[in-house]
Amino acid sequence: MILAVLILAIVLCGCRAEQPSSRVFDEARRELESRGHADQKIREGYGNRGKAEADQAIAMGRVDSANTAWLKTYVARNGWPTKAQVGKEAVDAAFLIVQHATQDTAFMRTMLPSITESYHRGDISGGAVATLIDRIEVKAGRPQIYGTQLSLQNGRWILDPIGDSSHVDERRKKMGLSTLAEYLRVVDSVLRSP
Known about the structure:
Oligomer: single chain
Shape: globular
Radius of gyration: 17 Å
């Protein structure tokens, strides 16, 4: 908790003594891209056809934990990465790391302002922000806002509860997301595949 508060203070006040060198950003780009690929590779096929393998879940936890620890250290030293510093793929990878830091929701909440700023700067999509907000809400036991989160229950992917569901498509549109019905059609087609 103390580390999360310290990271937030550093990020919000911009208290870094000097701007990191281009070498730091080049190394961060390579590291983030590699970690982003590992994040996605370990998730391939997870939950397809209503099956979640325990070994794969454990491996995802290990990857997520290592990625979160690395990103926390990077952000504490250098701030949230920008597209100008490390490129779009690396910024997207940093977002994935935060999104999958479900074992550390304090970190997820701490990074939300930086990710929102990244969206306003044009570095990431509104859908990324919506996904993180929903993930934080669901992890806190509250209804999600944008309808991006599903849970595997009894072999089926079920949409987590949505607050004010009658206006969810309006909120989704503002964040650049498709309608909820279209999203669920895509999710269903992907998760049914072998």
